[in-house]
Amino acid sequence: MVEKIPQGYKKTEAGVIPETWACLRLGDVSQKIGSGITPTGGSRKYKLVGHPFVRSQNVLWGKLDLSEIVYIADDTHTTFIGTEIKKDDVLLNITGASIGRAAIANDDIIGGNVNQHVCIIRPIQTELNSVFLCTYLISSAGQKYIDSFQSGGNRQGLNFKQIASILIPVPPQHEQVAIAEALSDMGSLISSLEKLISKKQRTKQGVIQELLMGKKRLSGFGGELNSIGYKKTEAGIVPEDWEVKTIGMLFSFKNGLNKAKEYFGYGTPIVNYMDVYSKRGLVADDIQGRVFVSADEIKAFDVQKGDVFFTRTSETPEEVGVSTTILEDLKDTVFSGFILRARPKTESLDIYYQKYCFSSSIIRHKIVSSCTYTTRALTNGRSLSTISLPIPPLPEQIAIAQFLSDMDEEIEKLIAKLNKYKAIKRGMMQELLIGKRRLV
């Protein structure tokens, strides 16, 4: 069947594009395509100040992460002049798991250098706009090109000849600028939302710490003008009207189910490590894992509303003892051997308060400190049982849980909005970069 080309479009090696667009090899519209080297001596040459030295971990999808940037001294930099970063350079990761990520050099790294894992692409600005190029490289079309150079779909590395051979659909300069501005505006909106979400998450973590330790009391609790005093306890300094109990006084513990891998993928729902690690509260729809088990195993490793699960083992102590609470009745559900079940002995804790009460920095520090570590970090019921937990009166627990839940809901709405904008940008990229949608 003959492909029908829309009026005003033409078929090229880069696909169907507008007649006024060119189809050019990246090497034909670039002043420079090349990477750097790592200084002799490696990390010993890195400094706290000097010329920024950009590595692949600093180059993300369309943006730079300079939180772990390192620097090199003047004498090292002068030997790397050929890899000096200039304004509007596009940086492309060319090796390893991050291959294909690209970003534009900003003012913070101009005058710095790149290592051998990062390629500098310096487009001829009168021919190819840097924002347009960077956006094309990280788009599905650009990534398809990068994938095509990898043997067997295994992303191993790009060489300069391959990069130079990438075909770019190139609009007239004024249209490139319009596309770049539209995508930059959407990128700025996304970046602003990401910063707002990050700020609110940091604020929430501080509020959690204050509320769960009684440093801050909600309206109606703590007496008039918070007149109730404080006391020193095993759990720290807490309000005088709060109780303190060990986790072992509140919960009984049980290790989870261990089965060979061939039993997984079908059968009974199972609460897994990532279910616990990724969410503070679980309902039936959150549990996607399945395992084939007997009726006796379902009974022995059952899951009930109000159960708390802790991650039991991990590569690092910081990932151990992360908790979630089961928020609804779950029929015929079991739990994995990589997690630990804590079943309430009493009704001292509100079920929704349980979602938060193990996540204050003080309690997390105690949980992490109680871990054992050989080849992997590990916790168990005996270790967790000794940790003291501050317990507000039940009405205050409910109020705290609701306050924190409202903060979570606000953040979740912002995240949903962020995901919507990201999807819109992906759609814009797909259409604008091949001329399916025109701005001018």
What does this structure look like?
With 440 residues, this protein is α+β, with helices and mostly antiparallel strands. 32% of the residues lie in helices and 22% in strands. The chain has helices at residues 74-77, 130-138, 140-148, 160-165, 173-212, 247-250, 273-278, 295-300, 354-357, 361-369, 381-385, 394-432; strands at residues 9-12, 15-18, 22-25, 30-35, 51-54, 70-72, 90-93, 102-104, 113-114, 118-123, 167-170, 230-233, 236-239, 243-246, 251-255, 264-271, 281-282, 290-291, 308-311, 313-314, 323-326, 334-335, 339-344, 372-373, 377-378, 388-391. The strands form nine sheets. Strands 15-23-19-21-17 form a five-stranded mixed β-sheet. A four-stranded antiparallel β-sheet has the order 4-10-7-8. The chain has a three-stranded mixed β-sheet with strand order 6-5-9. It is elongated, with a radius of gyration of 28 Å. The two termini are 32 Å apart. Residues 18-195, 239-413 form the Type I restriction modification DNA specificity domain.
CATH topology of the largest domain, anyone?
Adenine-n6-DNA-methyltransferase TaqI, Chain A, domain 2
Q: Any idea how many domains?
A: 2
Q: Which percent range describes the beta-strand content?
A: 15-25%
The helix/strand class is: alpha+beta
Mean pLDDT: 92
What is the CATH H-level superfamily of the largest domain?
DNA methylase specificity domains
For the sheet with most strands, the description reads: 5 strands, mixed
**Global geometry:** elongated
What is the number of helices?
A: 12
Between the first and last Cα atoms, what is the distance in angstroms? Answer: 32 Å
